[in-house]
Amino acid sequence: MDMGYDSEEIHRLIREDLHADSIIPIRSWNNEVIGGYYRQEMALNFDDVKYRKRQQVENRFSVLKRKFSGDLKSRKYFIQIKEITGKMIVCNLHRFLQILFFGVFYRAKICNDLNIRARNHD
Length: 122
Fold this sequence. Notes:
mainly alpha
């Protein structure tokens, strides 16, 4: 979550009701006093490494929505879960094949460049 969600109520909801860690940057201007128990704790113990992983997750969702459509065709909840799971599997396979494809051609290009250099050197 970003700074727009920094409020004591949201921190309390995440911690007490959802039993999860809230990692939300604290909004503060001109060194104002940070109010609220959870906001003060977040200001003292903010985990920058975990927060930066948020970008990876957001990027993954963006790719999923752009390449495989962000809307669902199903109406029933259970079928929607299956549809999302299927899209995620296809997205991961697509990424794997991209890495495999580019890796093979990258190695082939390196080998080709080395062969050309060897021939030119002789």
